[in-house]
Design a protein that fits this description.
With 226 residues, the protein is mostly helical. 65% of the residues lie in helices and 0% in strands.
């Protein structure tokens, strides 16, 4: 009853927006108990209405992808990533990178819904395929594949390049959220993977997981996607 009231009053929409908060660190999904609690909460909601949960997750993911489109779609997404990595990005582009943080968490949680909910029954599975657009040629899956391809490219390209030399160019705390509790630890942060490189690797990993989960769905082999 509590979960039903939560959904009816729009609580799920607010919950999906939590990961867009600028105060959250770039490595939020890997470092905090809050991220694990959020994932558990989504699973609990899914046990009550997994079709509605997936539908709203897809809507939220689509909105987040549109908000950071220059980083994965268009004539020169690589130049945008280089600007971010080298410290030459403006505030608008840094905000778009911040959107990837929330997007990666949403996609990861959606993948868990795909493997953790009972999709063996015909009606829920049909609703899921309709939401994903697997049998109708929806742009959702196509855009996710394009996002995956570009993030994989950026992961490979940035990983093979030499680390930036400017102490202000790659510190993750200057790009998304607050990476270090103590701002004076820039030297220590520089010895680690930058926030930009982390997001490229993270997006590649969560999207690879998503497509693997999708391929295991009952009837996926008969969809137009595969």
């Amino acid at each position: 009853m509590i979960c039903k009231d939560f959904l009816e009053q729009g609580g799920l929409k607010l919950l999906l927006q939590v990961t867009d908060l600028p105060c959250l660190p770039v490595r939020f999904i890997d470092l905090t108990d809050i991220a694990h609690a959020l994932s558990h909460l989504f699973r609990t909601i899914g046990e009550n209405d997994h079709v509605k949960l997936v539908n709203q997750m897809i809507e939220s993911i689509t909105s987040a992808m549109d908000a950071c489109r220059p980083l994965w779609h268009g004539p020169s997404p690589h130049s945008q990533w280089l600007s971010l990595e080298n410290g030459g990005a403006d505030e608008f582009l840094r905000e778009q990178l911040g959107r990837l943080k929330g997007l990666s968490t949403r996609i990861s949680n959606l993948s868990e819904m795909l493997i953790g909910q009972p999709w063996s029954h015909a009606r829920p599975t049909t609703n899921l395929f309709q939401a994903l657009g697997m049998a109708t040629g929806s742009e959702f899956i196509f855009d996710l594949a394009l996002l995956h391809r570009n993030c994989f490219f950026e992961h490979a390209a940035l990983s093979s390049s030499s680390p930036p030399h400017s102490p202000t160019s790659a510190a993750p705390s200057t790009l998304i959220g607050t990476e270090e509790p103590n701002v004076a630890t820039n030297t220590k942060a520089m010895q680690r993977e930058s926030g930009v490189r982390f997001m490229a690797r993270r997006m590649h990993a969560v999207l690879a997981k998503f497509f693997k989960c999708e391929c295991t769905l009952p009837g996926a082999a008969h969809s137009q996607l595969l």
